[in-house]
Amino acid sequence: MIARSILYLLVALGGAGLTLQMAWNSRLRSGTGSPVMATLVSLSVSLLALVVLWTTGAGGRGTLPAFNALPKWAWCGGLFAAYYLLVSVVAIPKLGAAAVFSVVIAGQMLAALFLDSTGAFGAPQLSLGTPRVLGAALLLIGVILIQRK
Length: 149
Prior knowledge:
The protein is mostly helical. The chain has helices at 4-32, 35-56, 77-95, 97-118, 130-147. The protein has a domain at 1-60. Helix content is 74%, strand content 0%. Helix 1 (4-32) crosses helix 3 (77-95), helix 2 (35-56) packs across helix 3 (77-95) and helix 3 (77-95) runs antiparallel to helix 4 (97-118). It is globular and about 45 Å long. The N and C termini lie far apart (44 Å).
C-alpha cells in the first residue's frame, strides 16, 4: 500500500502535470488551428499511454463489466475529460495558465465539497464543517486575487 505522504506527493505531481498539459495543449491548438483537433490528439496520446500501461499489466488488467452492471453515469467520466481539455486550450491563450487553473481548482473544490457533504455518486460522505468551508472560502479568495492584473 502507498504511504499517505507519498500519495499526497503523487497527487501534487499530477496537478503539476495538468498545468503542463494545459500549456502544451494550448500550443498544440495553435499548431493545429483547432481546439477540437488539439483535444483529439491529446486524448489519443492519453489512450496510447494507457494501452501501453494496460498491456504491461501495471495497475492490473481488470475486466470490463456489462453495461447494465453499473449506473449509466459511471460510464460518462470521459465526457468531462474531453470538456476540460477543450475548454483549457481555448481559455489559456486568452486568460493565462494561472487564471485558468485557479478557476479549475475552484470548480473542483466546490464540486468536491458537494460530493463529500452529500455522498453523491458513491463518494464517502464527510461533514461540511467550519474548517472545510473556511478553507474553500480562502481558496476562492485566492482565485479572485489571481484574476486581478
